[in-house]
Design brief:
Chains A, B: Its cofactor is pyridoxal 5'-phosphate. Two copies of one chain form a homodimer. Chain A is α/β, with parallel strands linked by helices. The first copy, chain A, is built from 16 helices and 17 strands. At the A-B interface, helix 2, strand 1, strand 2, helix 4 and helix 7 of A face helix 2, strand 1, strand 2, helix 4 and helix 7 of B.
């Protein structure tokens, strides 16, 4: 492999053969640098971000005790230093898990012909595995286990190939934790951050108690509008706001929660340009990135065939902010929650070395690292069993599964919702369908009902009719400005096909009664 | 069981039979109240702590989306509300683990005759288990899985039986995370907290970047001195300090890190009294609580036999702050790290309802909950396989194992360290041995070497001689006042018997050369 070749699935074996061996011991100090291809280092380095680090982030020092670890390399040294328990006192001798054998991805096929992978104490010593159960059960470093860090680093390079040299990954206890950490690294009490006008309510609720305010940005069916971002930033009045100009954007670029909107590649470029213009740092929260679906071809339209190859699949994905991040101004929060399992509480962050180093310092004195039990199960699945090829096969399978679910829900809407008052665009990614309801046609308006009372009436009527949908107002970043429009969010992630059809029928009936439609 | 009976191991079955059934579904809302015995409610309620909650803690609201969960109880309701993925898309069909079968606790016995416990998708529906793998792999509540919460609640009641009614447990991502969360709940930038003069350096390093300062308290061989705490608080000069009087104490009461000191029951009572006098809230960080050892009877003395029963074992434990906490002014951080596995990153906090509710609100937008994969493995081990009786057997086994290790290390010190300059007290709990070195006898002093330079010389001489011990100065809470004494910390947790003996010999040789002893 030459320096100029970006990493592909096919290139992983050669890269691993040439690269630094995975350290097998307890809590080794590692970074993505051990696992990136030479191609990465042909690129320029990221900009520096000293000017946006919080006082808290700037104050963090390298752990005193971790600093002593450097002596452990001395041959023959006996350590009575660190308080690591002896593995003989971990009462778990072995962990096994049963995984799907590609292409048999369904639970039925897995029960029939799944593969059982086993991790035991002593596996590394015995040459059975690079990741020893003894190591997984002990303390680790904040970057996560090198065995899993290698996989996510390679995956990140294969999918995103960031256009600067010094990017790093840090495994973490899930993207919710990652966002909380990012806020602590990048903001001070009183600051404003930029967010989509409808956003994931938990993301807003993480920021607000820290004294961080939200500056909402307008959206269209492709999500965040670069013009709105430029306008807010260009006209920021520090005196009137009592706060410096925002320098952090939080965005869910793909299958946005709650709107289901997906920013096109062009849209992202335009937003990145505005971020450069105003020197804004971007946090892209991307749990739904691999829930990009096949094009919607109507309720009865044929579903286009799945991507024919891994390359075609990767090319079909909308480029991430990370992939266009020439400045190193993007922190990408990656998640296994929507495509593997949320219960693992394992995610990872990707960003420039400076920010990831501070991120890691924060993890050291907080979560420490994601659960080793979860890490070794994911390693067994993703690295030892599937490998990158199998994981991409799984992600293509997920694409088709979610395409099918989306089609069922949108088809049910076409069949059962009153189009006199309900409008929608079929989502291109994610798990959410965003239904606009024309509240100005509601008969209650004439008798003096407010918009909010009408939303509550419709929500309660749906509950009465046996269906729970989420109210759009739950997701507004700005709770002070009255909403012009009215939305309801329905997810196609969880319910069965029959249930989805029935649920939408119930919602449609509730709307008809509410709006006095026949 | 009548209201006046405190919970015992033998009473758990009856309590479970009478109590609320464990909810089997995804992410149910639960609390310890579902699992506590009626005896708890015969006690008065905790005091209120509004006056010590941070602005951040006070600002936290209940999650908007979690608020909608109440509608899910409606029979027949179909939810298109929450974004929970469908379990058919979790590519883990089954997880098994091999655990020791009591009393065969060693790795060898476990390999031979261990018990394999298996969690599968559909276990709850099929009546195989209360904790379904589907549930563990999905999102959960911040309190943790009710299945494991029940176990730790019962365990807490059996061991500590808190003397107030409204105590609660909240599972969390480990005690390091728990302490970080406590700081965010209880302190503001500029505050001082009380800490032992030698303390776990990571605990200090968690506080400092938050702008929280440390007020060190004097210690003796029983750890923290109540007189020092009273003196610091009574003489606190807000103007001179530029900070309000401290109202949070962080203490490691048992097998303290780094000193190995254990506060006696009397000592704890005296400290609790000072806390009441000055209205101080106590965070007791207790990872070593169950590493209380048999009395030290000299290098060749006979080890007293293990406790003959669970009752005798429980009675042998020094009462925790939680067990004497009539006010509800204690947050106890509980850990599996030293007695089961640190890699699980699962711990729990115990405190009064008001504080635990705020704790939980913080977790919701940060770690969310400990890894479900780790939780279900711990549940299989602790609840389904061992039960409380088996877990106590394990803890008694750990007590004997650590007693043996402590005896080896202290015996090696007696054999190999020059008592002209090295002094110690055999630790009664934990994993650390604290060795005082009489630096004033060091020949370097005459040639103008500073105390710190002498410490560095001894440390480096030990490294050169092939042994790593920790420097006492790494653990000082106050880095500005010069240390009067000099200590080195050696752990008996990790190395083998042979290695411990050899390592202490090397340290002794290094001391002899350093001090010019024959």
């Amino acid at each position: 492999m030459t320096d100029s070749t970006p990493l592909s699935v096919a290139g992983v074996a050669a890269l691993r053969a040439q690269g630094t061996p995975v350290p097998l011991g307890v809590a080794p100090s590692t970074s993505s640098d051990m696992f990136k291809s030479a191609h990465c280092y042909t690129k320029p380095k990221a900009k520096r971000w000293d000017h946006i680090l919080s006082l808290e982030a700037k104050s963090r020092k390298v752990s005193t005790l971790k600093g002593a670890a450097k002596y452990l390399k001395n041959p023959g040294l006996i350590s009575l230093g660190g308080g690591l328990p002896s593995p003989e006192y971990f009462p778990i001798e072995q962990i096994s898990a049963k995984f799907p054998t590609p292409p048999g991805f369904s639970p039925e096929e897995t029960r029939e012909s799944g593969t059982v992978m086993t991790a035991s104490k002593g596996d590394a010593k015995n040459g059975n595995s690079l990741y020893d159960l003894e190591v997984a059960l002990n303390y680790g470093q904040a970057t996560g286990a090198p065995q899993l860090l290698r996989f996510v680093t390679e995956h990140t390079e294969i999918i995103h190939n960031p256009p600067y040299a010094d990017w790093q990954c840090c495994l973490n206890a899930g993207s919710t934790y990652g966002w909380d950490t990012a806020l602590r690294l990048l903001t001070e009490r009183g600051d404003y951050i930029l967010m989509e006008e409808y956003t994931f309510s938990s993301a807003a609720e993480t920021a607000l108690p820290l004294g961080v305010n939200l500056a909402p940005l307008k959206m269209d069916e492709q999500g965040l509008l670069p013009e709105s971002m430029d306008e807010v930033l260009s006209n920021w009045d520090e005196a009137a706001r009592g706060a410096r100009k925002p320098y952090v954007l939080y965005t869910i670029a793909t299958g946005q929660n709650p709107t289901g909107a997906t920013q096109s590649g062009e849209r992202r470029k335009a937003i990145y340009k505005v971020a450069q213009k105003h020197d804004v740092y971007i946090v892209e929260d991307e749990p739904y990135y691999f829930l990009q679906m096949q094009p919607y071809t109507g309720a009865d339209g044929p579903t286009p065939p799945p991507p024919a190859s891994h390359d075609e699949f990767i090319k079909s994905l909308i480029p991430s902010y990370l992939s266009m991040d020439v400045d190193g101004r993007v922190l990408r929060l990656e998640s296994f929650s929507k495509v593997v399992t949320p219960g693992s509480r394992v995610g990872w962050a990707v960003g420039c070395e400076q920010i990831i180093e501070r991120f890691q310092r924060n993890c050291e004195v907080s979560s420490q690292h994601p659960s080793g039990i979860a890490q070794i199960v994911l390693f067994k699945l993703l690295d030892e069993h599937w490998g990158h090829a199998g994981y991409l096969d799984w992600l293509i399978n997920m694409r088709m599964q979610y395409t099918n679910r989306r089609n069922m829900l949108v088809g049910a809407c076409e069949k059962s919702l009153p189009t006199e008052v309900a409008h929608w665009v079929a989502p291109a990614a994610g798990m959410f369908h965003w239904i606009e309801v024309d509240w100005k046609k509601h008969p209650g308006l004439a008798s003096g009902k407010t918009r909010d009372a009408i939303e509550e009436d419709i929500f309660q009527a749906a509950i009465q009719n046996g269906v729970l949908v989420s109210r759009g107002s739950w997701f507004t970043a700005d709770k002070t400005t009255p909403e012009e429009k009215m939305f309801f969010r329905a997810t196609f992630a969880a319910a069965s096909a029959d249930q989805i059809e029935e649920a939408i029928k119930r919602f449609g009936d509730a709307l008809r009664v509410q709006f006095g439609l026949s």
